[in-house]
Amino acid sequence: MHHFNEGKKCCGGKLEKVYIAGAFGNYINPENAKVLGLIPDVPTQKIKFVGNTALSGAKMTLVSMESREKAELIAKRVRYIELMTVPEFKREFFNSLEMPHRNFNRYPSVCARYPNISRLQEIY
Predict the structure, then answer these.
(1) I need a labelling partner for 11 at 20 to 30 A (CA). Which of 2, 5, 40, 61 fits?
(2) What's the rounded Cα separation, in Å, for the pair 43 and 41?
(3) For 43-63, how does the pLDDT look when each residue is reduced to its tens digit (9 = 90+)?
(4) Phi and psi at residue 63, in whole multiples of 5°?
(5) Phi and psi of 48, rounded to 5°?
(6) How far is it, in rounded angstroms, from Cα 6 to Cα 124?
(7) pTM
């Protein structure tokens, strides 16, 4: 898995889980989403649909002081990054606009499932 901040401290390029939240996750088929390049090419068992996490988090912080304190600590550690100022992100973003994703090398399970999909690269 490629990350736009490659070389910086970030999970070593290996995703342990992919969490999909909100209504988007209620209707998505993970295998089809990989074909389109919407989600990373990870084993399906690593994909977890977590529902309405904003609502759940809000409820947790209302009823639990420990959850509220944890949320405050996280909020203090979070930093804002203007992604459009990061050249690597812009390149990734524009390369990802095509469906299916323009770089089939990042989706080996899709290529294995649909051997002729790499022919689409000839069109690009």
Answers:
(1) 61
(2) 7
(3) 999 999 988 888 989 999 999
(4) -105, -10
(5) -125, 130
(6) 26
(7) 0.57
Percent of the chain at pLDDT > 70 equals: 78
Q: Which residues contact 31 (CB under 8 A, 6 or more apart)?
A: 44, 113
Q: What's the chain look like in SS3? A: CCCCCCCCCCHHHCCCCEEEECHHHHHCCHHHHHHHCCCCCCCHHHEEEEECHHHHHHHHHHHCHHHHHHHHHHHHHCCCCCHHHCHHHHHHHHHCCCCCCCCHHHCHHHHHHCHHHHHHHHHC
Task: Give the strand pairing for 18-21 and 47-51.
Answer: parallel
Question: What is the domain partition of the chain in residue ranges?
Answer: 15-123
Tell me the C-alpha distance between 18 and 42, whole Å.
Answer: 8
* Positions of the chain with pLDDT under 50: 1-11
Q: How far apart are CA 6 and CA 84, in angstroms?
A: 16
